[in-house]
Amino acid sequence: MASDILHIKDGFYFEVPRFLWRSNRKQASDFPAWFVRLDPDFQDWQAGQLVVQLQEAGVPEGTLSGLVDSWKAWQHSNHKNEGWPLQAYLDKVVSDAKVKAGKWVAKNAPGAAEPLKAYLAAHPEVEQPWFFDLISTPDGLKKWEGIKSSLGQSSVVDAYVKEHSEDWGPEKIASYNKSLDGKVLIPQPFGTLRNAYEAESGFCISRYMIIEVVVALLLFFVFRWLAKRMKSNDAPKGKAWNFLEGFVQAVRNEMVVPAMGEHDADRFMPFLWTIFFFILGCNLMGMVPWVGSPTAALGTTAALAGLVFLVGLIFGVKAFGVAGYLKNICPELGLPWYLAFWVVPLLWVIEFASLFIKHAVLAVRLLMNMGAGHLVLLGILGIGISVPAALGLSTGGWLGVAGISVIGTTILSFLEVFVAFLQAYVFTFLAALFIGSAIHHH
Questions:
Q1: How is the chain split into domains, by residue range?
Q2: How many CB atoms lie within 10 A of CB 216?
Q3: In this predicted model, what pLDDT tens digit does every residue of 134-156 receive, in sequence order?
Q4: C-alpha distance across the termini of the chain, in Å
Q5: Residue 13: phi, psi to the nearest 5?
Q6: Could you tell me how many helices (H) and strands (E) the chain has, helices first?
Q7: Which of 94, 106, 223, 336 is 20 to 30 A from 308 in CA distance terms?
Q8: Which residues have CB under 8 Å from 72's CB, separation 6+?
Q9: 293 — alpha (psi -120 to 50), left (phi > 0) or beta?
Q10: In Å, what is the CA distance from 370 to each residue of 139, 358, 439?
Q11: 357-368, pLDDT tens digit by residue?
C-alpha cells in the first residue's frame, strides 16, 4: 500500500511503541474511512458498483467482462499500483495513452490537431478502447466524472460497512488492529486521506505540520518573553536571558554581518534570526523519540528556500528597480565593448539560471543533511535486529551485536545534535549571503 521508505518520512500519524497505543477497534465501522477503502473486499465491492454504473451510462455489458481482471493484474504488476481502485486504473490508462500519443504524434504526425485521436486511430489495440469512446464526448465525460464523484462520497463507505460489517471476521479485525498498533492517527477535519502517507483531497494535516506549528509557537512565546526583558533596558539577568541574548548576538555577528555587512544586518535580522531558530528547532525535534524532523521533508526546506528567494527578489527590486535588479544579476567585468558584447549576455543567462539553482540547492542541502543522518541512525540501529536474525545468532551473539549497534547509534546521536546546529548556521549564513548579493551592486 505504500513504500517502506515512507515510514521515515512525513505521515498523517505519530508512531509510538505498540504497547503504548493499542488499536482496539471491534468492527468495520470503527476503522477510518480511508482504511476501509484500502480493504480488498471493499475494493471488489466498489468495482462491482462501478461496473453497474458504467452499464447504466451506456457501456455494453460484453465490453466490461474482463475489466476487473485487467484492473487486478495492473494492481499486482507494480508495487506503486497496490491499493488503487478500479476508477484510478481507468484514469491511468488514459493518462498513459496521452503520454504515448504525445511522443508518437511528435514523430509521426506533427500536424495532428488532436494527438490522442490520431494515436488511437493508429493503435486500435490500445487497452480498454471502450473507455476512450466513453470519454471522447462531453456527455460521456460528464457521466464518468459523475460516477467517480459518487464513488468518492463517504456514503459509499457507510453503505459498504452497513451491508458487509459481518464479513469482517475476528481474524481480519485482529490483523488490521495489529497494523494500527502504535499509530496515533491525526484527525482530518479539512480533507480526506488515501492512506496513512498520502492525501487524496482537501487540506490534510500531517505530523510535520503539527511539529512546525509547535516549534513556531515555542519561538513566539520564548522570544516574546525575551523582547519584554530587553525592552526594559535593564542589564541581562539570569541564565535564560543571557543565553538567549547571547545566541541572538551570535546570529547577528557571526552569520548576518559577515554575509551582508553591518549596515544591512539589522534590517534583515528579524527574518534571518527567525529562520535560524525555526530550522534549529525543527532539526532538534528529530532527536526527540517518536517525533521527527520536518526539515527532512522537501516541502519544508523548499518553502524556507522560497522565502529567502522572495525576500531577495522583493528587496532587490526595491533597491534597484526591475531593470536594475535584472542588470545587477550579472557582475561588472570591466571588459572592452567588443568582448562584453559576446560575454555579458552569455554570463547573464548563466547567472540568471544560477539564481534559481542556488536557492534550489539551499533547500536540497538542508534536506539531504538531515535526512541522511536519520537514515544512518536507522541503519545502524537496525543492525541489532537484522543481523542476528539473518545469521541465526544465539542470545549471547544477539546481545553483542545489539549492544554495539545501540552504542554506535548513541555516539552518532551526539553528532546529529551538532549537525542540527551546523545546518541551521549554514542555511542562515547562505540566506544572508544571497539576500546581500541581491541588494548590493556586484
A1: 23-180, 209-439
A2: 15
A3: 998 999 999 999 999 999 888 89
A4: 52
A5: -160, 160
A6: 16, 4
A7: 223
A8: none
A9: beta
A10: 51, 18, 30
A11: 999 999 999 988
